[in-house]
Amino acid sequence: MMPGAALVWCPFPEIESARVAADALLDDRLIACANILGSVESRFVWDGARAVGSEVGVLCKTTSERLEDVIERLGELHPYDTPAVIGWHADAAHPATFTWLAGSIPG
Predict the structure, then answer these.
(1) Rounded distance between C-alpha atoms, residue 17 and residue 1, angstroms
(2) pLDDT for 18-62, tens place per residue?
(3) Into how many domains does the chain fold?
(4) Which of 29, 51, 57, 106 makes an SS bond possible with 40, Cβ 3.0 to 4.6 Å?
């Protein structure tokens, strides 16, 4: 994989667990930043039934090289038994953004 940027989206049940996970990922130097977006209305199917809930969205910025590590670590940190952790490689990033990411996250 060519060096590049990557993002990971993950909703949490409340802000404190989102903060704990974000801080752990920062301490582990797996991400350069986590944007905790606040309340998100989630509408989903769970155990065959439609449900609605309030969650806190988190968007993590990392490098392509560490994407799988972030996804795995979020699965360990998350309070849900089945967390929704979705990551993707960014198609483009400003050169200064990638320089910041690469300088914040060891390869």
Answers:
(1) 32
(2) 999 999 999 999 999 999 998 999 999 999 999 999 999 999 999
(3) 1
(4) 57
Domain that holds residue 33: 5-104
Three-state SS across the chain? CCCCEEEEEEEECCHHHHHHHHHHHHHCCCCCEEEEEEEEEEEEEECCEEEEEEEEEEEEEEEHHHHHHHHHHHHHHCCCCCCCCEEEECCCCCHHHHHHHHHHCCC
3-state secondary structure at position 23: helix
CATH at residue 40: 3.30.70.120
Contact in structure between 35 and 58 (CB atoms under 8 Å):
yes
How does residue 94 score in pLDDT terms, banded at 50, 70 and 90? very high
